[in-house]
Hints:
homodimer; Arc Repressor Mutant, subunit A; two-stranded antiparallel ribbon; 7% strand; DNA-binding
Amino acid sequence: MALEHAILVSLTERAGSGYELAHRFDRSIGFFWPATHQQIYRVLRRMDEAGWVTHTEVAQEGRPDKKVYQVSATGRDELARWLAEPVDPAVLRDGLAVKIRGASLGDTAAVLREVVRHRGEHAALLEVYRGIQRRDFPKPAKLSGRELHQYLVLRGGIRAEESFLAWCDEVIEALRSEQS
Amino acid sequence: MALEHAILVSLTERAGSGYELAHRFDRSIGFFWPATHQQIYRVLRRMDEAGWVTHTEVAQEGRPDKKVYQVSATGRDELARWLAEPVDPAVLRDGLAVKIRGASLGDTAAVLREVVRHRGEHAALLEVYRGIQRRDFPKPAKLSGRELHQYLVLRGGIRAEESFLAWCDEVIEALRSEQS
DNA sequence: TCTAGCTATGCAACTCGTTGCACTGCACCT
DNA sequence: AGGTGCAGTGCAACGAGTTGCATAGCTAGA
């Protein structure tokens, strides 16, 4: 549904190959719309056939040739059309929540350890986000246009992680005092 | 991967038919692990073949017969096994974030309207969560066991929605002042 | 009376996303 | 000399999830 559009957004900012896009997805837009290289290659081909992007084969020395994609006028129209259309709300699908809900049907201590582990992973992700914020947006008050919008999305990630961490702490405390 | 286990958790709490489960999913566990009736029917059949659940056909008057499923010993073992095993972290996939990031490539005002609309939907969901909290968990300090765990998961939903709303407000304010 | 909605289950076809693998050549480490 | 990792594209198979439809009788409202 919308991987196409996430790619259009990313390619409009800068042209690139499938491989390169896959890496961009790992570091920025993919925090909010994850995709593997396989998916990206397949969708790029479809978009190419639909005329939303065009590609140029670029020969390289010492490494494989690549196809650099860029957004066509049709692609820009499609992106504008999509931007004006309503989006479905994001759905959560959280296995950890299911586990917590079922904790008393198994080893509660193991579930608690899982919560602690997830807390750690999310804390690390939050640090990544904060690093990006410090590096790329040191003065948020002065932002506008594309940079402002990138910053706002990052803020969403930061807020989501902060709230997840706070939740983990609440859960950890409650499960610990229940056990003792 | 884990719909099976979400169903096991729900069925352990109370036996039920596929139809009934689908409704439970719409109102409780499905907030964190959404599923359609189709998926539930298919997975229930698979679980039945695997021996994790058993079913009893119940004839009814004035309405179709139903199959009431309940968790078998094997199913309880499987659930305990899964509870002790690590879960993958939840992935976000948020079309709204992609839109905000691409806002300057289309109609920013339309994107802003979308953010406002999502804010409304999430505010409504938050009210649903708070209603459940008031009704089912008026005295959270006294909870333990299954009820405590249900409460904690609900807390996660409340926190996530609160933080989403705060983000929407930040985005709305920033986009509005950018436009004027 | 006609329409709509609830209860109840299920098939078929489809899209979306994941996983494992394949091929090439270079660079770097041990 | 051998393993690992990067750059680059891609196929094939699978699993998960969605959508549309079918069937059937009951109930409640316009």
